[in-house]
Amino acid sequence: MKFYNFELGSMGVNAYLIFPKDSNEAILIDAPEGAGDAIPKFLEKHDRKLSAILLTHGHFDHVWDCAELKDKTGAQIYAHAETKPFVEVEGAQSYFGFGDMRSFAIDKFLVDGQILKFSDLELECLYAPGHCAGSMMFYSKDKKKLFVGDVIFCNSIGRHDLPTGSFGVLQKSIRTKIYTLPDDVEIFPGHGPETSVGGEKSSNPFVTA
Fold it and tell me: Does the domain formed by 2-203 have CATH 2.40.10.220?
């Protein structure tokens, strides 16, 4: 597979566009502000069709352009069921202190351990709450790549002081779902530079191995 990182929106969200082999489809992980313009242009240039948008969680900065992208591309939106209150209710983001955004429906609900297949690409869904309810990571075992949203960052972790967040739950998610993977698995977070499982186990000051 090939994948491309788009750093978008005022909060610098990493959106990851994945191109499976032997296919003309594309998979997008998260859809921040600006994705509705940047992604279709990039897909047209590479003659690809967006078939799925996988959401790591429902915070506004990661989902702002989901509705627009769905309108433009027809892509289906995948997320954990606990993401529904964040994105399907008009004005819900205001309750979480994030301002208004256009609501949208989730097409397919994800569960922990589920395997998604797109041509040669297989992604395992790993439920990892703590940053917020419904937080989901996507793991390519054969490519040793883990897309984590805001669960963990390079030498840092996601916020846990927002509604539905919990430091204890986040610690457990990191220790049981990330630190149990091979040390050479690359971690691609929702903000900031990439890191690795081994690197975080040895140097993350917030959650020790």
Answer: no
